[in-house]
Design goal:
Order of helices and strands: EEEEEEEEEEE
Largest sheet: 7 strands, mixed
Structural class: mainly beta
Number of strands: 11
Radius of gyration: 13 Å
Strand content: over 45%
Mean pLDDT: 96
Shape: globular
Length: 115
């Protein structure tokens, strides 16, 4: 299984970004996919997760409200739509996938939000 995250960049506060995670190497029908982030010097935290088969989603307190996770089964891509970005959203964002736990991780994409 390989996960390739993309879509990060430098934006101003209030902007939106959509991160993509291209997945390959499996059918992913039994997988849960998640988006995490890790600010510099801080621990990694989960933002959102999605059941790849059913599309059911859940969000952490950090991901609730401004972030939306979705998936496109035709292209094996999971997205994270981020709106109204704030400087405190600056972090490396990771996608992850697994069945019982998050066994597979993408390489991360940097999101920097300037004030």
């Amino acid at each position: 299984v390989q996960l390739q995250a993309s879509g990060g960049g430098l934006v101003q506060a209030g902007a939106s970004l959509r991160l993509s995670c291209a997945a390959s190497g499996s059918t992913f029908s039994n997988y849960v996919m998640g988006w995490f982030r890790q600010p510099a010097g801080k621990e990694r935290e989960i933002l959102a997760r999605i059941n790849y088969n059913t599309g059911s989603t859940s969000y952490s307190d950090s991901g609730k409200g401004r972030f939306t996770i979705s998936r496109d089964k035709a292209t094996n891509t999971v997205y994270l739509q981020m709106n109204s970005l704030k400087p405190e959203d600056t972090a490396v964002y990771y996608c992850a996938a697994g069945i019982a736990n998050y066994q597979y991780w993408g390489q991360g994409t940097q999101v920097t939000v300037s004030s």
